[in-house]
Amino acid sequence: MRLTLLGTGDARQVPVYGCECQACIRARFDERLRRRPCCALIECGDQRWLIDSGLADLTERFPPRSFNGVLQTHYHADHAQGLLHLRWGQGLVIPVHGPVDPEGLADLYKHPGILDFNQPFEAFETRSFGALNVTALPLLHSKPTLGYLLEGEGRRIAYLTDTVGLPPATTAWLQRQPLDVLVLDCSMPPQPQAPRNHNDLNLAMQCIDELQPEKAVLTHVGHTFDAWLIAHRAELPGNVSVGFDGNVL
Q: Using an 8 Å Cβ cutoff, are 157 and 179 in contact?
């Protein structure tokens, strides 16, 4: 099983338009330091699924029938805007599995084109796609949001973004068996007060301590966290790393 982090940025991405912080300056000069909208590709056996669809160039990156469908975490624009173009394809149907959300994004439900939104996940529902088992995990965010437990070929990966902490039921579900990899929202450096909509490093480390994965990878990274990491990266525990665009797990 292979998970590729296609994008690891928050809604503003890195560099942030008009920002002159050290992280944004460096990212303008070094393509490897840029962060695009947070999304991933999971591959297991003959299955290839996008996790979120915030990249505007999905139709250029993925030829027709090169992936099985989309596991949508939620319908904020930075995670779903790629669907607005993808839907106008022809000659195929692309299933989009995600949370129950009556609003979705813009007019996607009204004009879905080739996208099939007819099978939203219930909380803790597991679906099997060939060798890949996917369980929907409720998260804490400003819009109905799911994380996904990805199981296959003897591996367990939890992909949890966007969230601020974890619901107790989700924590309990993930504690049933050891995790090989935890990919976790960490948008901000340590904050003096608990954030409202995304993890800072304090909350992320609390989640990691509770779940005890073999390896944790931080994603949905904002420019303030990147700037903090310039001086503090060595302070992260040995089993915790910060993801980057193109990172293969």
A: yes
Task: Give the dihedral sign, CA 170/175/177/178.
Answer: positive
SS3 226: helix
Number of domains into which the chain is organized: 1
Q: Per residue in 14-27, pLDDT tens?
A: 999 999 999 999 99
CATH label of the domain that carries residue 75: 3.60.15.10
Residue 208's SS3 state is helix
Query: For the sheet containing 240-242, what is the strand order?
Result: 126-129, 132-138, 146-152, 155-160, 181-185, 215-219, 240-242
pLDDT per residue over 18-67, tens digit each? 999 999 999 999 999 999 999 999 999 999 999 999 999 999 999 999 99
> For the chain, first and last CA: distance in Å?
9
Where in the sequence is the domain holding 79, given as residue range(s)?
2-248
The per-residue b/e assignment along 40-55, b for 16 or more CB within 10 angstroms, e otherwise, is bbbbbeebbbbbbbbb
DSSP labels, 118-132: --PPPTT-EEEETTE
Q: Name the β-bridge partners of 129.
A: 132
Beta strands in 91-233 (DSSP E): 94-97, 115-116, 126-129, 132-138, 146-152, 155-160, 181-185, 215-219
Spans of the chain, pLDDT less than 70:
none
pTM of the prediction?
0.97
Q: What pLDDT shows up at residue 194?
A: 84
